[in-house]
Specification:
about 900 residues; alpha+beta; 39-stranded mixed β-sheet; two-stranded antiparallel sheet; 41 strands; about 20% helix; about 50% strand
């Protein structure tokens, strides 16, 4: 056989092998998917699924790779439908020959990789753990039965967990642990009884206990070489270095895994004593770049964790943190922090969880000539945390940003003096047992200036003083100014610590006084624009009343300025509770009268709402109309009134972002009384129209003293109940509606004496002897529609006058006939003939000719021109 044939056959063989390696994954894919799903779901009490599975002989050749995509583990009861695990990709490697093993033969796993995963671990209040999903074995586990029955056998030499988040929550201990963006790799031989495992870990770690956050997204890095004794379950830390943010720590020792417990013996310390190690603990976002910081003094962390971990014990802990006479200075800041002394311990001497405590023997620093010092003990950290602490010192707030790179929108300034001791436990805060909260001492703040983009004007506190006594905090003095406004306050706060440490509501009672309070000093513009017309205008959010406030405030201000309105002698009570502001009996002098308000403003929802009862006493109508948009909307005719107003208004609706009523949403009712009022009709178009169309009326001379009217408003309309007033001896009754859009729909009835209806009626009246008839009146109905600026006016004056003439003619006819008995039909017949209204009468009615002639003779003088004017009167029956 020559070389050419050998190469040819070898090439064909390799080609067949390559084709087989490519084709086999597709031939075995369904078998692999079914085998993996069945194997996992048979062994756990949960639902495992994945979107796809791939088999590759080239990814980790000469080993085979199995890749599962979108892997999920869904819990059954008692965590029904909760996701325990999700992984975008889970990959394992095995030998190619392992894929051809029999159904009952275990497959060897050499490595695995998990990427883009989330693991959620939960322990509920009953002690159930969502990770406890393994089904109990029906037969006792022995080495032989385990190896024969298991579908997989692990002989791992490397593993990778990448881009993974882990959340742990224990409802019993109220422990929260979050590991974000975990990057972890391990290399070792788990097939050997003793070996070394090399690991690298990076993650962001957060830890909270009983709602108190102890660690918040601290960057943790760990490189560890671990000696593994798999036979005895002992893991020894050989070469290890950790970074907490940038604080280096080295440690050694071991962890022993026993059947019912774990034994821990670890020693740790900082590899150097440079004070930069302390600044390295602070996250870089706050500490900035510490590379070029000048430091003196030392900082050391050392200690040990030693003992047994089981259901009732934790290891004993003794960790020391010490710094002596240290200092630091940032190169680009003018001041330094000096005389830094730290002496603190984290200890547990019994191995019982509840006996863990932190003791700060000394914590002190100095900036310029200001010193600050504190000490304290924080015990029972895992059960009911107790605090016993003291702070004392003086601090110029302006120097903080000059010594430390803290970012503020505006600079702080002022002097803080503190001398305070506090002693409390967390349960006392939760249950509001203020007798167990011992606070003594005082805080003083002077010449404090605070400014921010969220406030219109800087807040200047000339002096504030707080006294702490057991169970209560007293605001002894608070003198401040913002813009043109001044105010001072005193009061008490009941649970400041509960608010600070337990998210309780801040409760208190305060008295606030002011000489002059300008609302504009505290109102942030609701819209922010730009001179560039192409810049989009961004609307601001309406002010929210904080839900954490539960306060009662008594207010007394000599003057309050709101827009163009000046209120004087403002007094009343304001209660803030759960996002509501409740006003009680707020009184003030305004518009030459007095106002009283009680009601509610709520900001719980996205749109703030209000419900208010308002009383106005002796308001100057002209001033109040010009100053109150609400009055302009509810009673636009007030523009033409000059005098005093008494009214009670109940209304509710939505508020705009500037906290003015949204008029299209308000509803309510009002009762109004006008006192010593005159009408300036020329100020309103529809009054001018009435004057023009009814010549016997001059509304400028109307006496509207003591008018009382009831109003209601809803859906953008005001309804006015009927009310009456007099012009001379004419009674006028008005009712109807008008809209907030200035539309009109009113009716007015004029009870007009006959003497005002022209010379014809007057001549007829002069010929009538009856005094009662001379005082007769007729109702003239008018309708006013359109709008206040373009009113439409219609009246039945002409037809009413015609009816009156007929009525008066009948009376005169009866008087002319004297004692002649003719009957009403006879008179009507004569009048109809004269007036041109001939009717067909019943033939049984006989009217003597002499009577008819006599009536014609008497009435002829009055009625002789009636027919000539008849057509003109018809034209006047409707006036527009």
């Amino acid at each position: 056989m020559n070389v050419k044939k050998i190469l040819k056959r070898t090439g064909i063989t390799l080609l067949i092998l390559i084709i087989a390696l490519i084709a086999t994954p597709y031939l075995f894919k369904d078998k692999i998917i079914a085998m993996v799903k069945d194997s996992i779901n048979e062994s756990i009490n949960a639902r495992v699924d994945f979107a796809d599975a791939d088999l590759s002989f080239f990814r980790n050749f000469p080993k085979a790779s199995i890749v599962l995509e979108d892997v999920s583990v869904i819990n059954n009861a008692p965590f029904e439908n909760d996701t325990l695990f999700y992984g975008k990709e889970v990959a394992v490697t095995t030998g190619i020959g392992e894929l051809f093993k029999g159904e009952n033969e275990a497959i060897q796993i050499y490595s695995f990789t998990i990427e883009n995963a989330k693991l959620n671990i939960e322990v509920d209040k009953a002690g159930n753990a969502n990770y406890d999903i393994a089904k109990p074995s029906e037969t006792p586990e022995t080495a032989e039965t385990t190896s024969e029955s298991s579908d997989f056998k692990f002989q791992i030499d490397n593993y990778h967990i990448l881009n993974t988040d882990i959340n742990y929550h224990d409802a019993i201990s109220k422990t929260y642990l979050t590991v974000e963006n975990l990057q972890h790799e391990g290399f070792g031989d788990f097939s050997l009884a003793t070996s070394e495992l090399e690991t690298t870990t990076n993650a962001l770690v957060s830890f909270a206990l009983d709602d108190i956050k102890y660690i918040n997204k601290q960057q943790i890095a760990l490189e560890a070489l671990i000696g593994m004794d798999l036979t005895n379950g002992k893991y020894t830390f050989l070469e290890n270095e950790a970074l907490i943010n940038k604080l280096p720590l080295t440690f050694d020792g071991f962890v022993q895994i026993n059947p019912d417990s774990q034994e821990i013996d670890l020693q740790l310390q900082t590899p150097s004593s440079d004070f930069k190690n302390f600044l390295a603990v602070i996250p870089e976002a706050y500490a900035k770049n510490i590379t070029d910081i000048q430091t003196t003094g030392d900082f050391k962390v050392s200690g040990e964790i030693k003992g047994i971990v089981d259901e009732t014990h934790i290891p004993k802990i003794d960790i020391q943190v010490v710094s002596n006479n240290a200092s630091f200075k940032y190169p680009d800041l003018p001041k330094s922090v000096q005389n830094i002394n730290i002496n603190a311990q984290l200890k547990n001497t019994t191995g019982k969880t509840e006996d863990t405590y932190i003791k700060i023997n000394d914590l002190a620093f100095k900036i310029d000539e200001d010193t600050f010092r504190g000490n304290g003990t924080f015990s029972q950290l895992m059960t009911n945390p107790k605090v016993n602490a003291t702070i004392k010192g003086r601090l110029n707030l302006e120097n903080i940003s000059k010594a430390y790179p803290i970012e503020l929108n505006k600079e702080l300034s002022g002097i803080l003096d503190a001398n305070l001791t506090t002693n409390f436990d967390l349960n006392a805060l939760k249950k509001e047992h203020y007798n167990r909260i011992k606070n003594t001492g005082n805080l003083k703040l002077s010449n404090f200036l605070f400014s921010s983009k969220d406030v219109v004007n800087p807040l200047a506190i000339s002096e504030a003083a707080i006294d702490f006594v057991p169970g209560r905090i007293s605001l002894k003095k608070f003198d401040a100014q913002s813009g043109k406004s001044d105010f001072n306050a005193t009061g008490t706060i009941e649970n400041l610590l509960g608010f600070l440490f337990n998210e309780d509501k801040l409760k208190g009672n305060f008295n606030v006084n002011s000489n002059a309070f300008y609302v504009s000093d505290f109102m942030v513009a609701s819209e922010k624009g730009s001179e560039n017309k192409n810049t989009e205008v961004t609307k601001g959010e309406a002010l929210k009343i904080p839900k954490f406030l539960d306060c009662n405030i008594n207010v007394n201000s000599k003057k309050v300025f709101y827009d163009t309105i000046q209120l004087t002698n403002v007094k009343g009570s304001l209660a803030l509770e759960d996002g509501d502001a409740i006003l009680e009996n707020v009184t003030s002098d305004v518009f030459d009268g007095k106002i009283t308000m009680s009601g509610l403003v709520s900001t719980k929802n996205d749109t703030p709402t209000f419900a208010m009862d308002v009383g106005m006493d002796s308001f100057d109508l002209s001033k109040s109309f010009n100053g109150l948009e609400l009055l302009q909307t509810i009673a636009p005719i007030a523009k033409a009134l000059d005098g005093k107003l008494n009214t009670n208004i109940s209304l509710k609706g939505d508020l705009s972002q500037s906290y003015t009523p949204n008029l299209t949403t308000i509803s309510g009712n009002a009762f109004a009384e006008l006192i010593t009022t005159t009408l300036k009709s020329n100020n309103i178009d529809f009054f001018n129209t009435i004057n023009d169309k009814l010549p016997f009326i001059d509304l400028n001379k109307v006496n509207i003293d003591d008018i009382k009217a009831k109003l209601s408003f809803d859906d953008g309309k005001v309804s006015v109940k009927p009310f009456s007033f007099n012009y001379k001896d004419i009674e006028i009754t008005v009712d109807g509606t008008h809209g907030f859009d200035q539309s009109l729909n009113y009716n007015a009835t004029f009870q007009i004496p006959a003497k005002y209806l022209g010379s014809e009626v007057t001549n007829l009246l002069s010929q009538i002897k009856s005094e009662e008839a001379k005082n007769i009146t007729i109702p003239v109905s008018t309708t006013i529609s359109g709008s206040f600026t373009r009113p439409n006016f219609t009246t039945d004056l002409a037809s009413a006058t015609k009816d009156l003439v007929t009525k008066l003619a009948k009376i005169k006819a009866q008087e002319a006939l004297g004692n002649i008995s003719t009957g009403n039909d006879a008179v009507d017949s004569v009048l109809d003939e004269i007036l041109g209204n001939t009717k067909v009468k019943d033939s049984t009615v006989i009217t003597p000719n002499s009577t008819t002639d006599k009536v014609k003779s008497v009435l002829g003088g009055f009625l002789k021109n009636r027919k000539k004017k008849k057509e003109d009167e018809k034209k006047k029956d409707s006036v527009n």
